[in-house]
Amino acid sequence: MSIETVIRSVENLPKSIDNIQKNGIVSENSDWTNMIFEKILLNGLRDYTIQDVAIINKRLACTKGQNFLSQVWRLSLRYTCVPKNNSFKRIKKIVHLIMKEEPLPGFSLDFIRENGIFNVELMVFTNILPSLERLTGRQFAPRFFSGSTQPPTIILEDLKPLGFKNKCRQSGLSQAHMLKVIEAIAQFHAGSAALNEQQPGRFLRFTSRSSSEETHASMYDWLDFIIDQIADKIRKWSEPWAIRASDKLKKLRRVTQHQKLLKVSEYDNDEFCVLNHGDCWIGNFILKVDYDDYFIKKYVEILSKSMKRYGCSTPPPTLQDITRAMHKRRIYGLMSGLIFYPRMIADVSDIEAIDDCFKSGTTKMNIFKNPRAVKALKKMIPAMLEKGYLD
Description:
- Residues 154-309 form the CHK kinase-like domain.
- This is CHK kinase-like domain-containing protein.
- The chain has helices at 15-22, 34-45, 107-115, 117-136, 175-198, 217-234, 242-251, 254-264, 292-309, 319-328, 330-344, 354-360, 371-387; strands spanning 51-60, 71-81, 91-101, 144-149, 152-157, 165-166, 286-287.
- The chain is an alpha+beta fold and 391 residues long.
- β4 (144-149) and β5 form a beta hairpin.
């Protein structure tokens, strides 16, 4: 179950979104004006003395290759308001926001519209996160200011001015940061398990698969192209495992991948089921603080303690359960390790638009140009061979 999981219907959109539109907080087009943002600040800050709102800065928040499901903007707004301790005085303030809009026309736009991604994310921000945060006593996301389905928009607090920031995707996370991420994920999962016990069926709308029969064929072309590229390249390496790994990778053609992805993404009620983040990568974590089995054990430990604290009667999964579930979905590990990780750590100048990749089913990016990618592959592929990930 996923925050940005595919759904085909919008009939269950939260009333709060409809109310936002009826109250005129969002216009019927994307011509964002000072007046619209004044209503957004009134709604988000709950301060009804706000006026004289003006956009003083708007700039793209993401560089090419960082986000293909939306356009993300950073906004700075100036406004005046009345302080609580002096009703005769007006003070000027600045607020910083993040605004997510639909991507530009192309494959990405078609994909998010076909799969209702904005609608699902809005449902989570308005209907799910408030309940989860009350239950767990912690914050999982920036403050939600406003949202709309027409135009598809989500407006959040920008935490960067408060000292939070994304870590460098090329460098990865330190152990301390990784522990923070594991803690957040485990508590998010534990909270969703407790919430589902209190309100059975609440998450059924999020059971759709991330891969389906409707998944664009070009995506599989793209995946095959990259796997073939890696298989051909590593075949020339001197390591003793190189040829065996190359042969196995060559067998991972579209039909095999397609069937595996469909199979492992099926909802299985016999497993430990929780609400998943849906887009859990380094670009979606902001941190303010400066081991394989180690991290999984830590996750299970925090998950178990959190479920007990939240009053869950559902037994938490054991380390063996998690290991078994990960092995069942090892095709995801292969995709993220061999395809997406080298792209993630690539120099921005080497990354082409995802639309171009999916349109042609190929990529111009040479992942072997990056020494760090080669080093990572030489660590990952033997481990994948040993664990049977390539079988």
